[in-house]
Specification:
Blueprint (H helix, E strand, L loop, with lengths): L2 E6 L2 E6 L2 H8 L4 E4 L12 E2 L6 E2 L2 H10 L19 H6 L12 H14 L1
Antiparallel strand pairs: 1-2, 1-3, 4-5
């Protein structure tokens, strides 16, 4: 059912009702229906669930998958590095690049030295 926006005595409120209910409600004294543009949110691109590999192609499937797998949305602020990669070995293995601010960490310098030794 659609959501309608109404105004009565200067107060605005929303109500979920059928068209028939809306038509009766609008006839009450002091009630005015406010016409608002429809807001449509694009659906999400398809992806595979990282937990179970199931194909997720809509927001409702995403919500169900998160609930079913006892998961939650990932937020970059959850990471101590803010989502930036600092381990060069991991980044190289996955075809990624380590963030510039972490390039000079001892573990990354050691990894680069190991790579130079292997290629020599």
């Amino acid at each position: 059912m659609p959501i309608y926006t109404f105004s009565r005595d200067g107060e605005t409120f929303e109500a979920v009702m059928s068209i028939a209910e809306r038509d009766v409600f609008v006839c009450e004294p002091g009630v005015r229906q406010i016409i608002r543009p429809v807001q449509v949110m694009r659906d999400i691109p398809e992806y595979r669930s990282p937990v179970n590999g199931k194909l997720i192609s809509s927001r409702s499937e995403r919500r169900d998958d998160l609930a079913r797998t006892n998961s939650r949305e990932w937020d970059p602020s959850d990471s101590p590095t803010g989502g930036k990669l600092r381990n060069e070995r991991f980044a190289t293995k996955h075809g990624l690049k380590v963030s510039e601010e972490f390039r000079d960490l001892p573990m990354n310098q050691q990894f680069r030295e190991e790579q130079r030794t292997k290629s020599a």
